[in-house]
Design goal:
Number of strands: 9
CATH superfamily: Nucleoside Triphosphate Pyrophosphohydrolase
Strand content: 25-35%
Number of helices: 6
CATH architecture: Alpha-Beta Complex
Low-confidence stretches: 1-18
Distance between the termini: 46 Å
Shape: globular
Largest sheet: 7 strands, mixed
Mean pLDDT: 86
Structural class: alpha+beta
Oligomer: single chain
Length: 189
């Protein structure tokens, strides 16, 4: 009897700790993966006429959906469903960081090649056209630029440059200022 009581108290405490009090808000994920050379951040091209630039993942809630659920669902949809729902439910979300009415969470994700993300599959509400993994140093350097829509530069042959849309840059910078994103590479000791 005592064991059952302690187990039920533990379950209630665990549920309370993991409950998401933020409901009905726009939310998204800033995903990264660890590689031999350090963290890589996944960004996606948003072809919306208002943006036509790169950013992290996120969007509006469905009904009164909790913020974490909105962030996970949007990530699933906007990565062309390459990350299955069982995988994303295990993500350890850090955050949120609030930028205006948008809530960002940071999480480590398994690496998936961009060709794999782009592969045709049955997925609705994709809303993104291309994906890119950005090395930590280039990602942080971009966030430290003053421009409203900063440019990410990936030094390869040839150097790749692309714009991050203003709203995405704002929420990414806020996550950096709040300590969710760190200047120190999270994958390096």
């Amino acid at each position: 009897m005592k064991t059952v009581f302690l187990l039920s108290v533990l379950l209630m405490f665990t549920a309370a700790v993991h409950a998401d009090p933020i409901k009905g808000v726009a939310a998204g994920i800033i995903p990264y993966t660890c590689s031999a050379k350090g963290a890589l951040y996944l960004l996606a091209y948003d072809p919306d006429l208002k943006r036509k630039a790169w950013g992290a993942f996120g969007g509006r809630p469905e009904k009164n959906e909790p913020g974490t659920q909105t962030a996970l669902r949007e990530f699933h949809e906007e990565t062309n469903c390459v990350y299955d729902l069982k995988t994303i439910e295990r993500f350890q979300l850090k955050g949120p960081s609030r930028s205006g009415n948008f809530y960002s969470y940071v999480t480590e994700v398994p690496y998936r090649d961009v060709a794999d993300i782009a592969a045709q599959r049955k997925c609705t509400n994709v809303e993104r056209a291309f994906w890119v993994w950005v090395p930590h140093a280039a990602f942080i350097k971009m966030l430290e630029k003053e421009a409203a829509s900063p440019v990410v530069e990936i030094h390869s042959k040839p150097t790749i440059k692309f714009y991050v849309w203003e709203g995405a840059a704002r929420s990414l910078r806020k996550a950096l200022a709040d300590g969710l994103l760190r200047r120190k590479d999270p994958c390096m000791p």
